[in-house]
Each structure stands twice: as C-alpha cells, then as structure tokens.
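Hi team,

Below is the intake form for Carbohydrate kinase from Mycolicibacterium gadium. Please confirm the fields before the structure is written into the shared record.

FORM ID: S-0412
PROTEIN: Carbohydrate kinase
ORGANISM: Mycolicibacterium gadium
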Amino acid sequence: MIGACSTALNGLDAGAVAGLAVDATSGTILIADQAGCPRTAGLMYDDDRAAEEARLVDEAGRPVWAKLGYFRMQPSWALPKLVWLLRHRPELKAGNLRLCHQSDLIAARLIGHPVATDTTNALKSGYDVIDERWPSEVFDRLGVPTRMLPDVVSPGTVLGVVSASAASRTGIPAGTPVVAGMTDGCAAQLGAGAVETGSWNSVLGTTLVLKGVSKRLIRDPSGVVYCHRGPNDTWLPGAASNSGAGIITRRFGGKDLDVLTARAARSPLGAVAYPLVAEVERFPFVARNVEAFVIGDAQDDVAMFAALLLGVACVERLCMDYLDLLGAPTDGPLTMTGGGTRNRFWSQLRVDLIGRPVSIPARAEPAVGMAVLASTLAGRSVVEAARAMVRSYVELTPDPTRGPVLLERYRDFVEALAARGWLDDAVASHARNRANQ
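The structure came back. Fields below:
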C-alpha cells in the first residue's frame, strides 16, 4: 500500500488530494483484534473451502437470503468462511476479536483505528441490506457472536481522516478524509460510468465480473446473482465468474500475446474452449467439479488461443442471457473494462458475439470508481460525479458479417454445458431462443 500511494502521488501536489476511498475484493476476510491487527491469515475471495459451512448458512438464514434475492450463499462468500474459521479455531470466539474485510483493514491502517465496513462488503457476510441490520437470529443459530460484526455504513460515509503516522509513510496529507469504499466490482462499475438504470459494466480481468443497475431487486433462486444497494434508491445486480483472462496467463504465460493475437485475427474462427481456471464455476451457473473442454480442433497455440478468447466471449454472452432471464434490465448502455480490453481483437470479438455497441472508457479501473465516490465529499451525487469524471475512449460496434458465425459457436457452447449437466435447462433454452432471434 505504501508503494502504491507513493506511485500514485509521484509528480502530483499531495495537497490537492481532497479525499480517498478504498476498494477490495468481495468476500476476502480475516479476523482482527481491537487494535486492527490480524489474528488469522486472510481468506481470499475465491477460496471455496467452506462448502459444508455454506450449507449450514443456507439452512440457518434461508428466509433472510430469500428476501434479499440470492436465496443461498456460495462457499466463497464471506459468511461461510467466517463460520469455517470459528469451527476450526473456536478460540477466536473469545475476547474482543472482530470480522474484518480487506478494505476495512486498509482503511483502518490509514486512519489509525478500526473502522465500520460498507454495505457492499457486508453483503456476503450476511448483512441485510433491505432492513439495514445484521440478522442476529441467523448468527445465533450459526454460533457467530454478533459482537464480532463491524458497524455498517453506506459507501461514501466519512470514516475518519488520514493519521499523522500514515501520512508520514504514504505521502497522503494528514487530515485527508477517508470515506467508506466498495467492493472491487462495484468500484469498477462506478469507474466505468455504469450508474444509470439498465446500464451494465463487464470487467474482464483474471475473472469476468458483470455489474448493472436496476430499479428493483433482482431475485435469483439459484443464488448466482446478488444485488447491492445502489445510489438514488437503485439496486446493483451482478455476479462474478471464475472464467476470464486468467486462463490466458496460465496457458500462454511467457509467450508473445501480440503475435498470437495477430495470427488469430488472420485465421478463420474454429474451435471454442471453456476458459475455466478452477474446478468451480460461480457465474453464469454454480457448479463444482467442472472441467475445461474444447469443441472443435485446436491443435496448435494459435487455434487454442483463439478458442479461449471465443470461450470467454461465450461465457460473457451467457451471463447476459442469464440476467435477461431473471428479468434484469439489460437494454441500457454497455461498457467493457479490465485488462482484457487492451486486446482490441478480443474486445471486437466480444462485441460481435453480444451483438450490440459497447463503450470502452479511457480509464475505468476500480481506483477511478473510488475517486468518483470520494469526490462526493464536494456535495455532488455519485451519478453527477461519474458523468463528470468518466470519459469514453473508444466505441465499438458489432460486425454483422461475423455475428452469425459466432452465434453458431455459442449455440454449440451452450449445448456442451447443458449436456454435462452444469447448465439448467431453462437457462439453456433461454440462451438458445435469444441466439435465434
């Protein structure tokens, strides 16, 4: 963090920093003491060790989770992992220890004392974002002391100011306000300017994350999609896949991706590969013990590279089809962000398969979203701040000549998932119908 702050402030007038907010991966937690010192290792956002605990959490809180629209929790969510920690280390229940999300720890280090968490990070820890409370009856059934749970505030709420000690180490002026942040997915959504109803942001990094804006709570009995509270009485539905650009790094690490891209662009579209990097999928379906597969011939590096790029595009399209099936508004502006957008061929491939125009903002990292959020200290709304600070870099439109070919590959991809029993029949049918329109 110290190095990142120094890099960010290099060449800038530190006195111009008017406020800051922290984003972090959703569901990454640890247990800390009252001084903010970690008492456990961090359990990461994609750690799915808590499968049995997720079942217990679902049983204990079923009515609450149903009310909140996601009906059940995934093993990688924060609450199942908290229960796992307490079952394996019951001594953590004693004393004045507390649940700490990743962004809570960083904000506390900046301010000098433990801080409240924000509603977006608290969601996967079991916070009721409708009634704005920790459902104590659920935590009692799970044996989780409610004293371990942090206070919860809305994103943008002032948590404190940068301490003199933190200022001396980071270069951020002492007294700079620190406001409650958001999860990285929500932060990226703000950074992309996807803040109006019907708008969506697709973040392609190591994994694929989709976040949108709805006027109503989107309910998903399968527990795949969940909703954060958004600004101006909106909801922010979304979910994260375990598929994404991570498979490219794993499969082609050390190789010249520019050369592979140029050769793939000159080759006809052939195979499609499921681009999974783990044995668990989270979106557009939840399944364990899944395996990557290839449809078609991908015998050399170029063919496999192209097949994986197309596979990610297919996962993205299926995510959009699934959201449409749930009744989420998907007809608004669509932006694409994340490291994957640096590959123009890949971005165009995704646009051609989705079949709609897409904007790629010039700078849409989650950090930009946190700058947008922190700027609300000046009195403007999040929507106003995003409009003022987010600029489009390029507009991509679908190539109508390539769409039909890609849709045929997409249908094959959907059939392969359904045949393996991973994709629900209703989802597969809806995806087929939309592809045939």
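SUMMARY LINE: The longest helix spans residues 301-325.

Thanks, M.
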